[in-house]
Amino acid sequence: MKKVFVFDDNAGILELCTIILEDAGYEIKTSSTSNNIIDQVLAYIPDIIFMDNWLPDVGGIEATRALKKHETLKAIPVIYFSANNDVKSLASEAGADGYLSKPFDIQELEDIITRHIS
User: Which residues, in sequence order, are bridge partners of residue 52?
Assistant: First the structure.
């Protein structure tokens, strides 16, 4: 079973992603903080990560950069996930592998996962 890790400080988004992705047959883990990002991801080793821009303490850009610098974790696709109008340039600045604008469509969410982990 493919594993998805979603980082978002909005409990509603985490709950929604959990319902959608479990329904689609994925195993999912969520976190509302990017503190100890490396430890959190190493403990789960997901197939793909969704990273919100606005996370407490360490923001999404710094968290994504830390993952992309880590030898074991850098190959895991990170999808930048934000309601910010400039999500594409934020994703690029962070070194993410792609981006998804919020609000998102369920099909878009599933398509981006399929594209990155097929």
Answer: 81
